[in-house]
Amino acid sequence: MRILKPFQAAFAAESVYAVRTEAMALEYFNLNANPGKEFFDVHPQTVMKGASGGYVMNTESGFGLKARGRGLYEKDAIVVFRGTKTKLDWVSNLYTSPYNLTMGKSVHSGFQRIFLTLHPQLEVFFAGNHFEQVHCIGHSLGGALATLTAEWVHRKGISKPVLYTFGCPRVGDFQFAQSLTNAMGVENIFRVYQKSDPVPMIPLWPYVHVPQPGTECYLGTDSIVRVSDHDMNLYAKQVAGKEWTDLRKSPPRPNWDAMSIEQWLKSASALTLSQSSLMMINAALMHVLKRVATAAGLSLNFLVIGGTTMLDLMAIALVKGARETEEMEGIVKHLVRRMLQVIGFVVDLTHLTYNVIRWALDQLRQAIHGLAKAAVLRLPGT
Protein backbone atom coordinates (compact mmCIF):
# COMPACT_ATOMS: atom_id res chain seq x y z
CA MET A 1 0.00 0.00 0.00
CA ARG A 2 1.19 3.51 -0.83
CA ILE A 3 0.49 5.73 2.17
CA LEU A 4 0.57 9.52 2.13
CA LYS A 5 2.97 11.00 4.64
CA PRO A 6 1.42 12.92 7.55
CA PHE A 7 2.47 16.30 6.10
CA GLN A 8 0.92 15.41 2.73
CA ALA A 9 -2.41 14.36 4.23
CA ALA A 10 -2.41 17.47 6.43
CA PHE A 11 -1.51 19.69 3.48
CA ALA A 12 -4.44 18.34 1.49
CA ALA A 13 -6.86 18.72 4.43
CA GLU A 14 -5.73 22.30 5.01
CA SER A 15 -5.51 23.32 1.36
CA VAL A 16 -9.06 22.31 0.46
CA TYR A 17 -10.34 25.33 2.43
CA ALA A 18 -8.63 27.62 -0.10
CA VAL A 19 -10.05 26.07 -3.26
CA ARG A 20 -13.76 26.80 -3.36
CA THR A 21 -13.76 27.27 -7.16
CA GLU A 22 -12.08 25.54 -10.12
CA ALA A 23 -9.98 28.63 -10.82
CA MET A 24 -8.81 28.82 -7.22
CA ALA A 25 -7.91 25.12 -7.30
CA LEU A 26 -5.80 25.49 -10.44
CA GLU A 27 -4.04 28.58 -9.13
CA TYR A 28 -3.39 27.16 -5.68
CA PHE A 29 -2.15 23.70 -6.57
CA ASN A 30 -0.09 24.70 -9.59
CA LEU A 31 2.15 27.11 -7.74
CA ASN A 32 5.75 25.99 -8.25
CA ALA A 33 6.46 26.00 -4.51
CA ASN A 34 3.26 24.13 -3.67
CA PRO A 35 3.94 20.62 -2.30
CA GLY A 36 0.55 19.51 -3.64
CA LYS A 37 2.07 19.41 -7.14
CA GLU A 38 3.98 16.31 -6.07
CA PHE A 39 0.87 14.19 -5.55
CA PHE A 40 -2.18 16.04 -6.98
CA ASP A 41 -3.22 16.35 -10.62
CA VAL A 42 -5.65 19.27 -10.39
CA HIS A 43 -7.87 20.14 -13.35
CA PRO A 44 -11.04 22.25 -13.90
CA GLN A 45 -13.32 19.35 -12.86
CA THR A 46 -11.49 18.79 -9.59
CA VAL A 47 -13.77 20.77 -7.27
CA MET A 48 -16.85 19.03 -5.84
CA LYS A 49 -19.91 21.01 -4.77
CA GLY A 50 -22.25 19.76 -2.10
CA ALA A 51 -25.20 20.66 0.08
CA SER A 52 -25.72 20.87 3.81
CA GLY A 53 -29.03 20.58 5.59
CA GLY A 54 -30.94 20.55 2.31
CA TYR A 55 -29.63 23.94 1.17
CA VAL A 56 -27.30 23.99 -1.81
CA MET A 57 -23.97 25.59 -1.11
CA ASN A 58 -23.19 28.80 -2.95
CA THR A 59 -22.29 27.90 -6.54
CA GLU A 60 -18.90 29.51 -6.00
CA SER A 61 -18.12 27.24 -3.05
CA GLY A 62 -16.71 23.75 -3.26
CA PHE A 63 -16.98 21.08 -0.61
CA GLY A 64 -13.99 19.06 -1.70
CA LEU A 65 -11.53 17.92 -4.34
CA LYS A 66 -11.23 14.74 -6.36
CA ALA A 67 -8.03 14.20 -8.31
CA ARG A 68 -5.68 11.66 -9.82
CA GLY A 69 -2.40 11.28 -8.00
CA ARG A 70 1.00 12.18 -9.37
CA GLY A 71 4.45 10.63 -9.12
CA LEU A 72 4.48 7.79 -6.61
CA TYR A 73 0.68 8.08 -6.41
CA GLU A 74 -0.08 8.19 -10.14
CA LYS A 75 -2.17 5.00 -9.93
CA ASP A 76 -4.21 6.38 -7.06
CA ALA A 77 -7.03 8.84 -6.53
CA ILE A 78 -7.11 11.49 -3.82
CA VAL A 79 -10.45 12.72 -2.47
CA VAL A 80 -10.41 15.58 0.05
CA PHE A 81 -13.27 17.23 1.96
CA ARG A 82 -13.39 20.36 4.09
CA GLY A 83 -15.44 21.42 7.07
CA THR A 84 -17.96 24.25 6.87
CA LYS A 85 -18.89 27.04 9.25
CA THR A 86 -21.82 28.51 7.32
CA LYS A 87 -24.02 25.42 7.66
CA LEU A 88 -23.93 24.53 11.34
CA ASP A 89 -26.98 22.25 11.29
CA TRP A 90 -24.71 19.19 11.25
CA VAL A 91 -23.50 20.25 14.71
CA SER A 92 -26.96 21.16 16.00
CA ASN A 93 -28.77 18.04 14.79
CA LEU A 94 -26.39 15.35 15.98
CA TYR A 95 -29.15 13.46 17.76
CA THR A 96 -31.58 12.94 14.93
CA SER A 97 -32.31 9.28 14.29
CA PRO A 98 -29.37 7.40 12.70
CA TYR A 99 -29.41 6.42 9.04
CA ASN A 100 -29.46 2.65 8.54
CA LEU A 101 -26.68 2.27 5.99
CA THR A 102 -26.66 -1.47 5.32
CA MET A 103 -26.85 -4.79 7.18
CA GLY A 104 -27.58 -3.29 10.58
CA LYS A 105 -24.87 -0.61 10.39
CA SER A 106 -26.03 2.93 11.18
CA VAL A 107 -24.41 6.31 10.55
CA HIS A 108 -25.29 9.85 11.49
CA SER A 109 -28.13 10.87 9.18
CA GLY A 110 -26.89 14.46 8.74
CA PHE A 111 -23.46 13.32 7.56
CA GLN A 112 -25.05 10.79 5.22
CA ARG A 113 -27.40 13.42 3.79
CA ILE A 114 -24.46 15.70 2.92
CA PHE A 115 -22.50 12.77 1.48
CA LEU A 116 -25.41 11.92 -0.83
CA THR A 117 -25.23 15.39 -2.39
CA LEU A 118 -21.61 14.66 -3.34
CA HIS A 119 -22.20 11.05 -4.32
CA PRO A 120 -23.20 11.66 -8.00
CA GLN A 121 -19.94 13.55 -8.63
CA LEU A 122 -17.93 10.74 -7.07
CA GLU A 123 -19.75 8.16 -9.19
CA VAL A 124 -18.92 10.04 -12.40
CA PHE A 125 -15.29 10.46 -11.37
CA PHE A 126 -14.74 6.79 -10.53
CA ALA A 127 -16.77 5.51 -13.49
CA GLY A 128 -14.26 7.02 -15.91
CA ASN A 129 -11.11 5.98 -14.09
CA HIS A 130 -9.50 2.93 -12.53
CA PHE A 131 -7.44 3.41 -9.40
CA GLU A 132 -5.47 0.98 -7.31
CA GLN A 133 -6.08 3.02 -4.16
CA VAL A 134 -8.26 5.93 -3.07
CA HIS A 135 -6.85 8.27 -0.41
CA CYS A 136 -9.83 9.74 1.50
CA ILE A 137 -8.89 12.83 3.51
CA GLY A 138 -10.80 15.35 5.60
CA HIS A 139 -10.86 17.71 8.57
CA SER A 140 -13.86 18.32 10.84
CA LEU A 141 -17.08 17.60 8.90
CA GLY A 142 -14.76 16.76 6.00
CA GLY A 143 -13.39 13.86 8.06
CA ALA A 144 -16.91 12.46 8.40
CA LEU A 145 -17.41 12.75 4.63
CA ALA A 146 -14.02 11.11 3.99
CA THR A 147 -15.06 8.22 6.28
CA LEU A 148 -18.33 7.70 4.41
CA THR A 149 -16.48 7.89 1.10
CA ALA A 150 -13.99 5.24 2.23
CA GLU A 151 -16.85 2.96 3.26
CA TRP A 152 -18.63 3.51 -0.07
CA VAL A 153 -15.46 2.93 -2.12
CA HIS A 154 -14.88 -0.38 -0.34
CA ARG A 155 -18.51 -1.52 -0.33
CA LYS A 156 -18.90 -0.89 -4.07
CA GLY A 157 -15.59 -2.63 -4.87
CA ILE A 158 -14.26 0.52 -6.56
CA SER A 159 -10.77 0.36 -5.09
CA LYS A 160 -8.81 -0.01 -1.85
CA PRO A 161 -9.46 3.02 0.37
CA VAL A 162 -6.99 4.62 2.77
CA LEU A 163 -8.52 6.99 5.33
CA TYR A 164 -6.92 10.08 6.92
CA THR A 165 -8.97 12.30 9.24
CA PHE A 166 -8.13 15.30 11.42
CA GLY A 167 -10.42 16.44 14.24
CA CYS A 168 -13.22 14.24 12.94
CA PRO A 169 -16.53 13.78 14.78
CA ARG A 170 -17.92 10.28 15.42
CA VAL A 171 -19.64 9.05 12.25
CA GLY A 172 -21.41 5.75 12.91
CA ASP A 173 -22.33 3.16 15.49
CA PHE A 174 -20.10 0.35 16.74
CA GLN A 175 -21.21 -2.05 13.99
CA PHE A 176 -20.34 0.50 11.31
CA ALA A 177 -16.96 1.38 12.84
CA GLN A 178 -15.96 -2.22 13.47
CA SER A 179 -17.07 -3.37 10.02
CA LEU A 180 -15.15 -0.57 8.27
CA THR A 181 -12.04 -1.23 10.37
CA ASN A 182 -12.13 -4.95 9.56
CA ALA A 183 -12.71 -4.25 5.86
CA MET A 184 -9.97 -1.65 5.42
CA GLY A 185 -7.47 -2.86 7.99
CA VAL A 186 -6.43 -0.68 10.89
CA GLU A 187 -3.10 -0.06 9.16
CA ASN A 188 -4.97 1.95 6.50
CA ILE A 189 -6.87 4.22 8.90
CA PHE A 190 -5.20 7.33 10.34
CA ARG A 191 -7.39 9.24 12.81
CA VAL A 192 -5.48 12.28 14.04
CA TYR A 193 -7.00 14.18 16.94
CA GLN A 194 -6.15 16.34 19.91
CA LYS A 195 -7.44 15.58 23.37
CA SER A 196 -8.48 19.21 23.75
CA ASP A 197 -10.37 19.49 20.42
CA PRO A 198 -14.15 19.50 21.13
CA VAL A 199 -15.31 18.26 17.71
CA PRO A 200 -14.03 14.65 18.08
CA MET A 201 -16.06 14.51 21.33
CA ILE A 202 -19.36 14.60 19.45
CA PRO A 203 -21.82 13.03 19.11
CA LEU A 204 -22.07 10.79 22.18
CA TRP A 205 -23.53 7.27 22.27
CA PRO A 206 -24.37 5.32 20.07
CA TYR A 207 -21.64 6.76 17.85
CA VAL A 208 -18.01 5.65 18.05
CA HIS A 209 -14.80 6.49 16.20
CA VAL A 210 -13.04 4.59 13.44
CA PRO A 211 -10.81 2.58 13.84
CA GLN A 212 -12.69 0.26 16.16
CA PRO A 213 -10.69 -1.36 17.60
CA GLY A 214 -7.32 0.10 16.71
CA THR A 215 -4.65 2.64 17.53
CA GLU A 216 -5.32 6.28 16.70
CA CYS A 217 -2.90 9.10 16.07
CA TYR A 218 -3.37 10.88 19.37
CA LEU A 219 -1.71 14.25 19.89
CA GLY A 220 -1.05 14.49 23.60
CA THR A 221 -2.35 17.90 24.50
CA ASP A 222 -3.87 18.46 27.93
CA SER A 223 -7.52 17.68 28.59
CA ILE A 224 -8.68 21.31 28.89
CA VAL A 225 -11.10 21.84 26.01
CA ARG A 226 -10.03 24.66 23.67
CA VAL A 227 -11.94 25.62 20.55
CA SER A 228 -8.70 26.84 18.92
CA ASP A 229 -7.32 23.30 19.01
CA HIS A 230 -9.70 22.33 16.23
CA ASP A 231 -7.87 24.54 13.72
CA MET A 232 -6.46 22.54 10.80
CA ASN A 233 -3.34 24.68 10.58
CA LEU A 234 -2.49 23.63 14.14
CA TYR A 235 -2.90 19.97 13.20
CA ALA A 236 -0.63 20.53 10.19
CA LYS A 237 2.06 22.07 12.38
CA GLN A 238 1.87 19.22 14.89
CA VAL A 239 2.35 16.45 12.31
CA ALA A 240 5.02 18.27 10.28
CA GLY A 241 8.29 16.36 10.08
CA LYS A 242 6.79 13.22 11.61
CA GLU A 243 6.03 9.73 10.30
CA TRP A 244 2.90 7.77 11.04
CA THR A 245 4.96 5.50 13.30
CA ASP A 246 5.72 8.57 15.42
CA LEU A 247 2.05 9.51 15.65
CA ARG A 248 0.42 6.10 16.18
CA LYS A 249 -0.63 6.00 19.81
CA SER A 250 -3.80 5.97 21.87
CA PRO A 251 -4.39 8.05 25.00
CA PRO A 252 -4.25 6.48 28.45
CA ARG A 253 -7.70 5.06 29.11
CA PRO A 254 -9.39 4.50 32.47
CA ASN A 255 -10.61 1.06 33.49
CA TRP A 256 -14.09 0.80 32.00
CA ASP A 257 -15.33 -2.52 33.36
CA ALA A 258 -18.84 -2.56 34.84
CA MET A 259 -17.69 -2.35 38.46
CA SER A 260 -15.38 0.60 37.78
CA ILE A 261 -18.07 2.48 35.88
CA GLU A 262 -20.61 2.05 38.68
CA GLN A 263 -18.06 3.10 41.29
CA TRP A 264 -17.34 6.21 39.22
CA LEU A 265 -21.07 6.96 38.92
CA LYS A 266 -21.50 6.81 42.69
CA SER A 267 -18.38 8.85 43.35
CA ALA A 268 -18.49 12.43 44.60
CA SER A 269 -15.27 13.36 42.79
CA ALA A 270 -15.17 16.72 41.04
CA LEU A 271 -15.78 16.86 37.28
CA THR A 272 -15.02 19.42 34.59
CA LEU A 273 -16.00 19.56 30.93
CA SER A 274 -12.91 17.74 29.64
CA GLN A 275 -12.22 15.02 27.11
CA SER A 276 -11.57 12.50 29.88
CA SER A 277 -14.85 13.29 31.64
CA LEU A 278 -16.83 13.08 28.42
CA MET A 279 -15.24 9.74 27.52
CA MET A 280 -16.30 8.44 30.93
CA ILE A 281 -19.81 9.88 30.55
CA ASN A 282 -20.07 8.15 27.16
CA ALA A 283 -18.94 4.81 28.62
CA ALA A 284 -21.29 5.20 31.59
CA LEU A 285 -24.23 6.11 29.35
CA MET A 286 -23.67 2.98 27.27
CA HIS A 287 -23.31 0.81 30.39
CA VAL A 288 -26.48 2.16 32.01
CA LEU A 289 -28.50 1.88 28.79
CA LYS A 290 -27.49 -1.77 28.51
CA ARG A 291 -28.51 -2.37 32.11
CA VAL A 292 -31.88 -0.66 31.77
CA ALA A 293 -32.52 -2.46 28.49
CA THR A 294 -31.97 -5.78 30.25
CA ALA A 295 -34.06 -4.77 33.27
CA ALA A 296 -36.96 -3.41 31.18
CA GLY A 297 -36.81 -6.12 28.51
CA LEU A 298 -35.87 -3.65 25.76
CA SER A 299 -33.58 -4.16 22.79
CA LEU A 300 -30.96 -1.50 22.18
CA ASN A 301 -32.18 -1.59 18.57
CA PHE A 302 -35.17 0.24 20.00
CA LEU A 303 -32.86 3.23 20.30
CA VAL A 304 -32.04 3.42 16.61
CA ILE A 305 -35.56 3.52 15.17
CA GLY A 306 -36.71 6.45 13.12
CA GLY A 307 -39.40 8.98 13.90
CA THR A 308 -37.94 10.70 16.95
CA THR A 309 -34.63 11.99 18.23
CA MET A 310 -31.93 9.98 19.97
CA LEU A 311 -32.32 12.13 23.08
CA ASP A 312 -36.04 11.28 23.26
CA LEU A 313 -35.34 7.58 22.86
CA MET A 314 -32.57 7.56 25.46
CA ALA A 315 -34.80 9.42 27.94
CA ILE A 316 -37.63 6.92 27.36
CA ALA A 317 -35.31 3.97 27.89
CA LEU A 318 -33.74 5.44 31.05
CA VAL A 319 -37.06 6.27 32.69
CA LYS A 320 -38.41 2.80 31.85
CA GLY A 321 -35.35 1.19 33.40
CA ALA A 322 -35.53 3.41 36.49
CA ARG A 323 -39.06 2.19 37.16
CA GLU A 324 -38.07 -1.47 37.15
CA THR A 325 -36.21 -1.72 40.46
CA GLU A 326 -34.97 0.53 43.23
CA GLU A 327 -31.39 -0.40 42.29
CA MET A 328 -31.90 0.63 38.67
CA GLU A 329 -33.50 3.90 39.75
CA GLY A 330 -30.39 4.64 41.82
CA ILE A 331 -28.05 3.88 38.91
CA VAL A 332 -30.01 6.12 36.54
CA LYS A 333 -30.03 8.92 39.13
CA HIS A 334 -26.25 8.64 39.52
CA LEU A 335 -25.85 8.85 35.72
CA VAL A 336 -28.05 11.95 35.44
CA ARG A 337 -26.26 13.55 38.42
CA ARG A 338 -22.83 12.97 36.81
CA MET A 339 -24.00 14.27 33.42
CA LEU A 340 -25.20 17.48 35.05
CA GLN A 341 -22.13 17.75 37.29
CA VAL A 342 -19.77 17.77 34.30
CA ILE A 343 -21.49 20.92 33.00
CA GLY A 344 -21.74 22.62 36.38
CA PHE A 345 -25.33 21.83 37.43
CA VAL A 346 -26.48 20.63 40.86
CA VAL A 347 -30.10 19.44 40.73
CA ASP A 348 -32.47 17.72 43.16
CA LEU A 349 -33.20 14.32 41.58
CA THR A 350 -35.76 13.14 44.14
CA HIS A 351 -38.36 12.78 41.40
CA LEU A 352 -36.78 11.20 38.34
CA THR A 353 -39.17 11.76 35.44
CA TYR A 354 -38.90 11.61 31.67
CA ASN A 355 -38.85 15.41 31.53
CA VAL A 356 -35.98 15.65 34.03
CA ILE A 357 -33.89 13.05 32.17
CA ARG A 358 -34.66 14.58 28.77
CA TRP A 359 -33.72 18.03 30.10
CA ALA A 360 -30.44 16.71 31.53
CA LEU A 361 -29.50 15.03 28.25
CA ASP A 362 -30.29 18.24 26.37
CA GLN A 363 -28.22 20.38 28.76
CA LEU A 364 -25.23 18.09 28.20
CA ARG A 365 -25.81 18.23 24.44
CA GLN A 366 -25.97 22.02 24.45
CA ALA A 367 -22.77 22.36 26.47
CA ILE A 368 -20.73 20.03 24.25
CA HIS A 369 -22.17 21.33 21.01
CA GLY A 370 -21.64 24.92 22.08
CA LEU A 371 -17.92 24.21 22.21
CA ALA A 372 -18.03 22.35 18.90
CA LYS A 373 -19.88 25.20 17.21
CA ALA A 374 -17.37 27.72 18.51
CA ALA A 375 -14.57 25.58 17.11
CA VAL A 376 -16.27 25.21 13.71
CA LEU A 377 -16.92 28.95 13.48
CA ARG A 378 -13.14 29.45 13.42
CA LEU A 379 -12.83 27.52 10.15
CA PRO A 380 -11.58 29.55 7.18
CA GLY A 381 -13.79 30.48 4.25
CA THR A 382 -17.38 29.30 4.08
Mean pLDDT: 82
Distance between the termini: 34 Å
Helix content: 40-55%
Give the neighbour order of strands across the main sheet.
1-4-5-8-9-11-13
Concise structural overview:
This protein has 13 helices and 13 strands.
Which labels suit this protein?
single chain, 382 residues, alpha/beta, Rossmann fold, seven-stranded mixed beta sheet, two-stranded antiparallel sheet, 13 helices, 43% helix, 13% strand
Question: Can you describe what's shown?
Answer:
It is a single chain. By secondary structure, the chain is of the alpha/beta class. The chain has two domains: 6-253, 3-Layer(aba) Sandwich (Rossmann fold), CATH 3.40.50; 258-372, no CATH class. 43% of the residues lie in helices and 13% in strands. The protein is built from 13 helices and 13 strands. The longest helix is centred in the last third of the chain and has 23 residues, at 354-376. The radius of gyration is 21 Å and the shape is elongated. Residues 52-60 have low confidence and may be disordered.
